[in-house]
Amino acid sequence: MCGINGILKFNHTKVDEKQLLKMRDALEHRGPDDAGYFIQDNIGLGHRRLSIIDTSAAGHQPFISENKRYALVFNGEIYNYKSFYPELKNKGIVIKTGSDTEVLLHLFEHYGMDFLKRLHGMFAFAIWDTLEKKLILARDRMGVKPLYYAFYENSIYFASEQKALFTAGVPLEISENGMDEYFFNRFVGGENTLYNRVKKVLPGHYMVLENDGYTTNTKWWSLQSEIENHPTIQKPKEWFEETFFESVKLRMVSDVPVGVLLSGGLDSCSILSSLYYQDFKNINTFNIGFSEEEHDESFLAKNITEAYHYNFHQTRLNNESLFLNMMESTYYQDEPLMHLNEPHLLAVSKTAKPKVKVLLSGEGADELMGGYVRYKALKNPSLLKVVSGLSLMERFNKKPRFDKLFRYSQIDNVDDLVIFNGSNVYPEDIQQFYGKTEMPYNIYRHKILAEAKTLYPNNPQRQALYFDQHTYMCSLLDRNDRCTMGTSIECREPFLDHRLIAGLGTLDDKWFFTGKKGKFILKDTMRNKLPEEIINFRKIGLSAPWYTYLTEYPAFKEELDAFAISPIFEMSFLENLDGKKLVAELRQGNSKLMPYIMPIFMLHVWYKNYFKKFV
Question: Is 307 helix (H, G, I), strand (E, B) or coil?
Fold first, then answer.
């Protein structure tokens, strides 16, 4: 696990060493254990290392092939790297380290990019071919590991985080379309980002950049194709348990301690249970607790940890520490906070740091198996029209969930119901609140929707799952990576094993939506392994009482005063809003404003604590 960066100059001028190292060291939090770089004329590669597999100096990067043709910088883990040892030895290759990086480079040398399909892992890497003078940038199937790039001044800059690009001198300029998407969808889907010039290498893709700047993009893994060509699963429950348990076992491959981010919910407890039933010992679990009962699952996490004779660790955030973690996570995130639990994830990662270097997370289970209550609204979209006509109920019912459902029901076509299922604000909200008449249009989102409709015609629920797996889940994975790597910890997600993702995509709806809470296949598989209180407990997730924070915690109340007169209200998207009026209404008890205020408030925090560092 590491931070990678690099520069390729298409005008053939020599890479500036100081510029390359400034980029590299902007990522020091991702790799405090070691640092290296490679410069050859117009190419430069940088690397910060967090030692997980082969912690000796033999794992130093950039990794240079024996014939000196290739230079590699690699971020991530190849969990099945040892399975390639016999094959490589039969080819006469002497394995000189215990590093998965060495295996990756040997596989590339012998098989080209076809080797990617054989990997079990999460990764982003760059390979420079000194003979053919070309650069390859590649990313794992689901985009667990981030990789950003920018074309600027006849060069390409790339890095694990956007801040390294801005450190190198790429201008920080907010994209108008990106800003629209941030408010509408909470994040920018596809290859674009919040910033002009800055793009993402898409999950399951690689780029080849020639020395003259000619670029080709290749999609090396397609979930649609994997689902369409997957053999029928005859015994889904048995298949799921075997594949899930093997995925958990693979993600324990490490030369340093591994722990579990344990909320107390079904997903993370299933991971812990899998470890227990596979006889893993001395596991540390890490939990964040809330004083508000409606947000707290910590007692469940503590109970199951103690039942398995593992070690439980918990943290709680008070006013000042929560505020400081919010500021810190904003810097690590590079963009305004969107999920609103980033400070909590950063804090629990800090608690874990003295004990472990790797954490397992339950991320991905909801999007793969239908775990969000919002999917229920798509079972029979025509019934939403009934909800949309309940104007009197909307007027008198003050529950946020009902208010959100009422606003969602105003959407008048099924495609948009799928596209905006993961949003907090909807088309009519944008017009009424922001005074904007046009919705942001993202070609990538509509491309993914088209794939979803091909796979699951007339099935909006399954379309929404597929859609989320390519959009919303990507933002969650990015959040996990930034918050854990901000404390120099690697995060691994067992539910995102590519065999699980593809296989689940072929199963009948009953394995997802049976019962009240979704994820039926997971609940049914783990029913005899987990306590009933975990199987049947209401879903909470890592939610947080932000209305209470903003209106009662001193540090947040003070920041809310600054927000009321923030310069962000001069931005084009916000020019119709009155910050002072919004704050006054919020303090008078209008909590229904929270879905609108929180993205703007986090934009204010980002503008104040990130934007000004780079402009």
Answer: helix
- For residues 500 and 247, the answer to whether their CB atoms sit within 8 Å is yes
Locus of tokens 């053999």: 231
Helix (H, G, I), strand (E, B), or coil: what is residue 170? Answer: coil
Q: Write out the two tokens for 386.
A: 């009934």
| DSSP H or E run through 453 | helix 443-455
Can you tell me which residue has the tokens 């799952």? Answer: 465
Using an 8 Å Cβ cutoff, are 1 and 48 in contact? Answer: no
State which residues of the chain have pLDDT below 50. Answer: 392-393, 395-396
Task: For residues 498 and 142, give the distance between their C-alpha atoms in angstroms, rounded to a whole number.
Answer: 8
Distance CA 434, CA 534 (A): 41
Find where tokens 């008078």 sit. Answer: 588
DSSP class per residue in 243-256 = HHHHHHHHTT--SS
Amino acid at 529: K
**What is the tens place of the pLDDT at every residue in 114-172?**
999 999 999 999 999 999 999 999 999 999 999 999 999 999 999 999 999 999 999 99
Helix (H) or strand (E) holding 284: strand 284-288
pLDDT of residue 392: 47
Inter-axis angle of helices 460-470 and 472-485, nearest 10: 40
- How far is CA 47 from each of CA 6, 16, 62, 186, 391, rounded to the nearest angstrom? 9, 16, 6, 31, 58
Alpha carbon distances (Å) from 364 to 165, 248, 341? 29, 14, 16
- For residue 187, what are its two tokens? 């994040």
pLDDT for the residue numbered 302:
94
pLDDT digits (tens, 9 = 90+) for 191-204: 999 999 999 999 99
Q: What is the 3 state secondary structure string of 115-169?
A: HHHHCCEEEEEEEEECCCCEEEEEECCCCCCCCEEEECCCEEEEECCHHHHHHCC
| Angstrom distance (rounded) from CA 188 to CA 177 | 9
Contact 453, 378 (CB under 8 A): no
Residue 303 near residue 314 (C-beta atoms within 8 A): no
- The CA distance from 215 to 201, in Å, is 12
The answer to whether 162 and 174 have CB atoms below 8 angstroms apart is no
Residue written as token pair 């990019």: 113
State the CB neighbour count (10 A cutoff) for residue 80. 15
For CA atoms 328, 329, 335, 340, the dihedral sign is negative
CB neighbour list of residue 197: distance below 8 Å, 6 or more residues apart: 150, 151, 152, 170, 171, 173
**What amino acid is encoded at 488 in this protein?**
S
pLDDT of residue 388: 62
Phi, psi for residue 178 in degrees, rounded to 5:
-65, -40
**Rounded Cα–Cα distance for residues 585 and 433 (Å):** 14
Handedness of CA 115, 117, 121, 123 (dihedral sign): positive
**Torsion 468-472-476-482 (CA) sign:** positive
379-387 contacts: CB < 8 A, separation 24 or more?
Answer: 379/461, 379/513, 381/414, 381/417, 381/460, 384/408, 384/409, 384/411, 384/417, 385/409
Burial class for 365, CB neighbours closer than 10 Å (0-12, 13-18, 19+): buried
pLDDT of residue 299: 87
Bridging pattern class, strands 490-492 and 358-360: parallel
SS3 assignment, position 121: strand
Q: How much is the pLDDT for 396?
A: 46
Q: Which of 344, 353, 359 is nearest to 289 (CA)?
A: 344
**In the structure encoding, which two tokens stand for residue 379, read together?**
């079972």
